[in-house]
Write a structure and sequence with these properties.
4-stranded antiparallel sheet, 12 helices, Alpha-Beta Plaits, 6-stranded mixed sheet, alpha/beta
Length: 399
């Protein structure tokens, strides 16, 4: 026989019964494991047969700059930002797709392309996924070449524009210089200005901007990176197992009409009753009643036993106390009858609700426990097993 206790204070909400909940989960362990295994197997088969495999290839590039690399997040982001933007530009991606026959559009290529920073600020890795390793490597190299060419074209355009602006300033200064008197201070200042402009022009023409060069091209992996049917199936199986166990406990405790242990534990816990789960033979309530009534010294103490469907309970009489002349017979009432009309509720101190796993007493039990909780009566719920012992009597009649 097992005993599960709950709160007896009717004004306080029952505490969370984690131990009882884990016991309920243990009772549905096998069906939950079966469900989890089936879900995991289904995910494994689906991911293995219905999802196309994808392989990854990468190209490690280095950003070379004419200036000095400064440590710091801001500088590093500014160094990489132009190349990251070019890698997402439709024109650059279109140029890359013209060199490799993939059947992709720019949106598809963008979804298969990933740029990740390297181990140093100047390193940038281009990774591409495709249906086979060779295609992935070809596309990755094509994207790097297209980005490098676009960056070079942008740099040349910027240099040409800057040189053109300086040439315009030189032409203007030369025309002004020609109008100034020889050996004058203004002519001398103009000559200095022309020298500075020519030096700026030479410096601007020599500046090529940041360049992207290929540092290494690792071999494409022969192992697909997606899908991962084993790991995905394990995750799905674990999640399905947990969800199935919780749903099974919820269903057995809240759905249906037949009494079961999970429901009995939940309803006893909710109404502050003590739950006893016993075998299928005749139940002797004397142990429960003697212990409860031993603490009641006032005259006229009273107890009742409420019987559910297909229960088997022995008759019991509580020995007389110091203020009583004879032993006290304990009344038996049918749980489904109006027991509160005939029971002595004024002197009632303890009630035992006896149920059977073969009965359908859920609604009546919850109503009776709620009434007893309002009366402040000590409450016990006894759940008898499905198989009665050989030679036991049938269901008892209510007194």
């Amino acid at each position: 026989m097992t005993v599960e206790s709950a709160t007896t204070h009717r004004d306080a909400p029952p505490p969370i019964d984690l131990a009882g909940h884990f016991r309920d989960l243990a009772r549905v362990l096998l069906p939950a494991l079966v469900i989890g295994a089936l879900v995991g197997a289904g995910v494994f088969v689906a991911r293995s047969t219905l999802v196309d495999k994808e392989y990854s290839a990468s190209v490690v590039t280095q950003i070379t700059t004419s200036g000095e690399i400064v440590a710091g997040d801001a500088f590093v982001e500014q160094l990489r930002a132009p190349f990251e933007e070019l890698a997402s530009d439709d024109g650059v991606l279109t140029q890359a797709l013209t060199t490799v026959d993939t059947g992709w559009d720019t949106g598809t290529l963008r979804s298969h392309l990933t740029l990740t920073p390297g181990t140093s600020p100047a390193l940038l890795t281009f990774a591409v996924t495709a249906g086979n390793p060779r295609t992935a490597q070809q596309v990755a190299r094509a994207v790097v070449d297209a980005v490098a060419q676009a960056n070079q074209s942008n740099a040349e355009r910027d240099v040409s524009r800057r040189v053109g602006q300086i040439d315009t300033s030189i032409d203007s200064e030369q025309a002004r210089n020609a109008r100034l008197p020889a050996n004058s201070s203004a002519r001398t200042a103009s000559d200095v200005r022309l020298a500075e402009l020519r030096a700026q022009r030479d410096q601007a023409a020599a500046a090529g901007g940041n360049q992207l060069t290929v540092l290494s091209v690792p071999d494409a992996s022969s192992t697909p990176i997606s899908p991962k049917p084993v790991s995905e199936a394990l995750v799905a199986a674990v999640v399905a197992f947990i969800v199935a166990a919780e749903l099974l406990v919820l269903a057995r405790g809240r759905l249906g009409r037949r009494n079961n242990r999970i429901w009995a534990r939940r309803v006893a816990h909710r109404h502050g009753a003590r739950l006893q789960v016993v075998g299928g033979g005749r139940f002797d309530p004397s142990k429960v009643l003697y212990g409860e009534l031993a603490h009641r010294h006032r005259r006229g103490r009273s107890a009742i036993i409420l019987l559910g469907e297909q229960t088997d309970v022995a008759s019991v009489a509580v020995p007389a106390g110091p203020a009583e002349q004879s032993a006290q017979d304990i009344d038996h009432h049918d749980l489904h009858d109006e027991w509160w009309r005939t029971a002595d509720l004024g002197d009632l101190v303890v009630a035992v609700v006896v149920l059977s796993t073969r009965g359908r007493d859920r609604a009546a039990t919850e109503a009776a426990l709620a009434q007893l909780a309002d009366l402040g009566v000590s409450r016990h719920v006894v759940l008898q097993g499905r198989r009665p012992r050989r030679g036991s009597a049938g269901a008892s009649d209510a007194d």
